[in-house]
Amino acid sequence: MHTILILENEEGLISILLEETLDAVKVIQFASTSNLHFLPSGPSPSNPSKLLISTQMQLLLMKRLKWRYDFII
Predict the structure, then answer these.
(1) pTM for this prediction
(2) Counting C-beta atoms within 10 Å of the first and last residue's C-beta, which end of the chain has fewer, N or C?
């Protein structure tokens, strides 16, 4: 998706989940062509499914991002 939107993928969701000090809001990018805020995946981890069901993921989506966005896909 980052390729289609012509956005960076250096840091993303995985980076945020692995580095607790990394601020999600600073990693989110704006795709002006589609008026979309985009959180790329970031580098591929060795255990993606474990990270996606982690407590950090729940806290990120529910506590940090849900208040900021009407829809999270």
Answers:
(1) 0.80
(2) C
